[in-house]
């Protein structure tokens, strides 16, 4: 039986100021696996053609850069751009360059701007690309910014979906790609105010935390490796939106709080500056007591209904 | 004289660029330069010292664990508790770091290096029953070969059968490296960027279910290392045997040692480690390390000249771009005034020079199989072989350590946060010697410096003009076809650089058409 024509979906994955933790995390994808993503039809009839990804691609140097440039040209308006890392902008971007033209280094900020302009959509992968993240932390020595901020300044309107996390969970990435391949770009009501899919980032860590009962009981760990809620050791779970407690990490083995490590809030725009010191109790936030969260939710739903 | 630009060199981590000049088909000169500055050392200043174990992991998402380890050592030292870490805490730190060694080495050989030697297109007419190879065959048949093609052509030497076996192992290795990360997360919470390793020990007591889950994944990975990884390195070595004679490098080797075998003061030479600290050279004479002899030069780096020649504990990071004679964001660390190679080859050679029985046996057996002399180790293939041996030695040791855990015993030593202090954490990671240095004032970080393995290997010239290890390894290499400079990228990748690199082979004549930029 002849195979049905498979639609190739070109993807350019650009690494700016990153630690490569995002791509390393995505390599941990379990189902689909990375092999599924790279060589198979990741959704029926569609294949992700990863044209440029500097950690896995065979080509180096000119062949690599010309694949990126020719894809951007030939597939104008059709390719998906994945940006990993924040973009250094200080001193015209000299703190991060890739390749050179006429003996002049090309700043990453120029690459991202021009690739973004002609992309069909952009996935800002990781907290750095989404909101600036660790490399934009004070004093932000290199003027790093996230993709949305960069594009807003350049008046580029290509849609951006944020997939934050330091690193992001592989499912959050493959799930977002699958969402785009299956049904096109997510609509506004599928995203939260920070541009993330509610599917993955719709609930607070605190809501689903297996140690929540300790919190409600007031049983707090006083030092590391104690039993109890990690609130007094600096946990940012009550301020952080992500489905880690349910999804778990590394193919379902564990997660930060599962191993006694307080949540550092790594999926949030506030990470890291407003969440550090990481190991000091959050005091300037009023935390919900049991039941209050739901009452608040019901109240706002009722208010919403009244308004309509 | 010719210059070629290979930019970026892919399948490495981070951003690095190397420039070389070619004359009569031989590299006369090479320059290695990091093209990304992120300033994490500046970002750390003013923060709570304990945040260092989290923030420094973001230096590298491929080897974050060794950064959390070095910074935890650094804090243990500054807090005066280095010799008080409970056994369980010490062992769990070793298991988390060891898992990252396995992940990193498997990833490096199969997913970063192998495409230089293995021809994926040999699967096009595959007729066997391996479902993973069938899926690659279907992929090739559809004709969109990214990201496996384009590539540098002209030197794929394996037979069709060898290529197919290697492609199957490339795919199997994806599962294996993921499993190494699963092991890691059992005790580390998650990875990249674990949350378990902190000042004072780790965050959770070991439970029996996690110990067994860890052990069985480890067994599976040890099988893979013994029966697939090491044989594949030998297979590549057989087909590319001239790579035992290229990419020699500077010939000085440095290892801080790694995997503490008992709680000890932070003085490097008082540590009992699986791999002991030391130096050696191509003479294989053992030497000891005096950390005071580590200094960093910046004459050829984009940092203020006033900061050159300092010990990292007193180091400064003051960006200065543009700057005359500078071509890199990487500083030039030197030990006793000399450039040093760090990484698995350095680790194995230092242990060999110290006469460590397991290492000596393993290396001698390998050399017998390869019908080679120890001299062959100072090469591209020597680095791959040493990395595979390193994986085996670490994996074997981990199988003992995991059974030394005592469930529900302490893993963490509480401490008082000092107002003023300083500390150092020196330890080998998968890619070699890593040092962190901290100064604490008014209870906050006043200074933080990290000298990472690739800073040693990919360093630019020092103040005396002596090239760094990767630069030296490239200089003198024969380049067969400047449009396909596969020799150069193979040399650079054999170091497993932890920067997204770009390599330049530059000629004065300007750009010309070609697969590499030749001018």
Task: Describe the fold and architecture.
The complex is a heterodimer of chains A (308) and B (519). With 308 residues, chain A is α/β, with parallel strands linked by helices. Chain A has twelve helices and nine strands. Chain A has a five-stranded parallel beta sheet, sandwiched between helices. Chain A has a two-stranded antiparallel ribbon with strand order 4-8. Chain B is of the alpha+beta class. Chain B contains 13 helices and 14 strands. Chain B is globular and about 65 Å long. The C terminus of chain B is likely disordered.
Q: What name goes with the CATH superfamily of the largest domain in chain A?
A: NADH:ubiquinone oxidoreductase-like, 20kDa subunit
CATH architecture of the largest domain in chain A, by name, is 3-Layer(aba) Sandwich
Query: What distance separates the N and C termini of chain B?
Result: 9 Å
Instruction: Please give the oligomerization state of what you see.
Output: heterodimer
What's the mean pLDDT score of chain B? 91
Number of strands of chain A: 9
Given this structure, which CATH class of the largest domain in chain A is correct?
Alpha Beta
Main pleated-sheet profile of chain B: 5 strands, mixed
Bin the helical content of chain B: 25-40%
Terminal Cα span of chain A: 55 Å
Quick rundown:
By secondary structure, chain A is an alpha/beta fold.
List keywords for this structure.
heterodimer; A: 308 residues; alpha/beta; Rossmann fold; Cytochrome-c3 Hydrogenase, Chain A, domain 2; 2 domains; 5-stranded parallel β-sheet; two-stranded antiparallel ribbon; B: 519 residues; alpha+beta; 13 helices; 16% strand
Helices and strands, with pairings:
The complex is a heterodimer of chains A (308) and B (519).
Chain A: E1 7-15, H1 21-26, H2 34-39, E2 46-53, H3 61-74, E3 80-84, E4 87-88, E5 97-101, E6 104-107, H4 108-117, E7 121-125, H5 126-131, E8 144-145, H6 147-153, E9 160-163, H7 170-183, H8 198-201, H9 205-208, H10 212-217, H11 244-247, H12 292-307
Parallel strand pairs in A: 1-2, 1-3, 3-7, 7-9
Antiparallel strand pairs in A: 4-8, 5-6
Chain B: E1 2-9, E2 15-23, E3 26-34, H1 40-44, H2 52-55, H3 64-79, H4 87-113, H5 131-142, H6 160-188, H7 208-239, E4 252-255, E5 258-260, E6 273-275, E7 278-281, E8 294-297, E9 332-335, H8 344-353, H9 357-370, H10 380-404, E10 421-429, E11 432-441, E12 444-451, H11 453-457, H12 469-474, H13 486-494, E13 500-505, E14 517-518
Parallel strand pairs in B: 2-13
Antiparallel strand pairs in B: 1-2, 1-13, 1-14, 2-3, 4-7, 5-6, 8-9, 10-11, 11-12
Helix pairs in contact in B: 3-4, 4-6, 4-7, 4-10, 6-7, 7-10, 8-9, 8-10, 9-10
